[in-house]
Amino acid sequence: MTELATCPACGRLMRLASGCALTQLEHRQRVQYGFEDEDWGAGSGSPCRGCAVVAYQFHHWGCEVARCGECGDREHKGPCEALARS
Ligand SMILES: [Zn+2]
Ligand SMILES: [Zn+2]
Ligand SMILES: [Zn+2]
User: How far is the CA of 29 from the centre of ligand 1 (A)?
Assistant: First the structure.
């Protein structure tokens, strides 16, 4: 990512905002940094490697670490395939 990337969801500079204002995506609750299935370092106090938010805040939109709360894949817009399969 570039140093001055702006989050398209909250309009703030990713490196200056400690968390995203977007808490919900369409009908889905978003997954905060630290609640992913994988360990990205939130427990040890490291900021997100993708969008630099602090632990247990919401990722900025487009972060490579952000996960969909339903399918566990990278966060996405539109209907979730996990729901379509069930
Ligand atoms: Zn944001
Ligand atoms: Zn992130
Ligand atoms: Zn999904």
Answer: 15
